[in-house]
Write a structure and sequence with these properties.
The longest helix is centred in the C-terminal third of the chain and has 13 residues. This protein has a 9-stranded mixed β-sheet. It is built from 5 helices and 9 strands. The chain has a single domain, classed as Aldolase class I (TIM Barrel, Alpha-Beta Barrel), CATH 3.20.20. The chain is globular, with a radius of gyration of 17 Å. The chain is of the alpha/beta class. It is 22% helix and 25% strand.
Length: 208
């Protein structure tokens, strides 16, 4: 029986994508291959509860919602996450995958909406993104850049200019303890970049 290490399953508002503000069921998987400097879910690095996929689906079914997000940690660190996403799709859930971009995306079902984090230098994991993952992106997928300072902004801006990116939605997200949203807004307005300034709605509302 396929099992995964699960940190938590909970119901909240989706906080940081084009689905922002929508009710969403979150499946937070344990374990991560990176250690980003600004990570706010370090509690998911270790431990968790071993759950069968059937048990996870039973937990998900308790909530009045058809939007589900796999997050972490890093969901793709556990191979069985691919099976879980397909099972959710078969049950007609809209499935989001929050992933750090350092692991292969090619086996993820194309129907899954991939929200892929491109790590900037300020994260401490700036060389982790696999460029060939860009080949797995579709128009409904999204790229996210978490920025800590102006060099991170320049990095993200240069990354977009240098790569053909199929994803329609690009997010620039300030690590608010290090970079104010107002400052990032000024940079975006000055350059007129085709990106969205994204804030973590769940934190603004003191939600999980």
């Amino acid at each position: 029986m396929d099992k995964l290490e699960i940190c938590e399953v909970f119901y909240s508002l989706q906080g940081e994508s084009s689905y922002q503000g929508m009710p969403c069921i979150f499946i937070r998987l344990s374990g991560c291959n990176l250690r980003c400097s600004w990570c706010d879910t370090q509690y998911s690095y270790h431990g968790g509860k071993s759950m069968s996929i059937d048990s996870i689906l039973e937990e998900v079914a308790k909530y009045p919602c058809k939007l589900v997000e796999l997050t972490g940690g890093e969901p793709l660190w556990q191979d069985e996450s691919i099976i879980l996403m397909q099972r959710l799709l078969d049950l007609e859930y809209t499935v989001l995958l929050e992933t750090n971009g350092s692991l292969d995306l090619s086996e993820v079902a194309p129907e899954v909406v991939k929200i892929v984090d491109v790590k900037c230098p300020g994260s401490g994991a700036g060389n982790s993104f696999l460029k060939y993952n860009l080949n797995s992106l579709q128009e409904h997928d999204e790229l996210k850049f978490v920025l800590t300072n102006y060099p991170d902004y320049i990095y993200a801006k240069s990354f977009i200019a240098a790569n053909r990116i199929a994803a329609k939605t690009l997010h620039f997200c300030p690590a608010t303890s290090l970079l104010s949203p107002e400052t990032l807004a000024e940079w975006l307005l000055e350059d007129g970049l085709p990106v969205k300034l994204s804030l973590q709605l769940h934190k603004l509302l003191n939600l999980r």
